[in-house]
Amino acid sequence: MSEESEVVKVDGLAKMLGRTEASIREGIRRGVAWLPPSFKMGGKHCWLKDDVRIFLQDFRDGQHLPAKLGRPRREPPTLRIHI
Question: How far apart are alpha carbons 34 and 31 in whole angstroms?
Answer without folding.
Answer: 9
